[in-house]
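Allow me, if you will, to draw on your knowledge of protein folds for a short while. I am sending you one protein, given as its amino acid sequence and as whole-number tokens for its backbone shapes. Kindly check, if you would, that the fold set down in the tokens agrees with what the sequence suggests. The record follows directly beneath this note:
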Amino acid sequence: MRQVFKTTTISFILIGAATTLLAQKSPPWSKGKNAPAANPGYVFQVDTVDNVPDLHGNPQDAKLVLFIGGNQFMVLPQLVAGFERQHPALRGYIYYETLPPGILRRQMENGDSLTLGNLTIHAQPDVYEAGARLLAQMEGKQEVERSVRYATNDLEIMVRAGNPLRIQSLRDLGRPNVRLSMPNPAWEGVARQIGNSLRRAGGENLLHQVMDVKVKNGTTYLTHIHHRQTPMRILSGQSDAGVTWSSEVRFQEKIGNPISGVPIPASQNTVAIYAAAVMKNAPHLEAARAWVAYLTSPEAQAVYKEYGFQVIAGSKP
């Protein structure tokens, strides 16, 4: 297939989850069927070829465009539905992406364009949601309006149900027989938090073993879309474990997949704080500000709580 886009475009990202399953049929949740398309046109899908679970809606004529860190994908169907009930004029006109925050940033840096195979779409974001630290940096550069914090999360070790390798701690991830699925630091923000936790558990030696030695010998696989690939690799038997946000473990349990989690002690864990902000050049300013305000509402906070996130102190879900 002829390459017709810049080297920083990311078409290969969106099909990575499908190819890692090899001949195994992709589970429905990995293809976005947990969040069916709103107002679909003619539906043409081919298993292992068309797999775009993190792009939702129609960017053309959208009245609100949301770029949201990928590990929140499971809450968006309920949040969008709740928001549309309050703003019926926006029903069917909300487009959102749930890719890794670093990938979303690259998309914004490349003219808000995203290329999938030979298809290029253009979607200028009204709202960007990611870690509070990144949003604070963007505030300082006057790229966004004042950011709003709305939820927190902590880390957990994701394993297959029954924990066949008896993984008990982060230290066990350094074992040669444990095949890992871990986020790529090049674009996955969670990689930094995981690195901090590995240091707390076993110092630089453990971090080096997990993210350098085992990467080189093939027992650590670096993902492109961690919130999709890690559970899929565990379910397909390609990986034994991976460090994810606790909410991702809760989601897999909620939909009945044979996945469970190994808690990480607070002394070794890392807490993520999620924030949202309206882009300075947002095309749909009023709708964007309404969405950011909605994230701290009791209704939205209850949805985050349901899926394993923790609400921000002072919020009342």
Q: What stands out?
A: The CA atoms of residues 30 and 160 lie 17 Å apart.
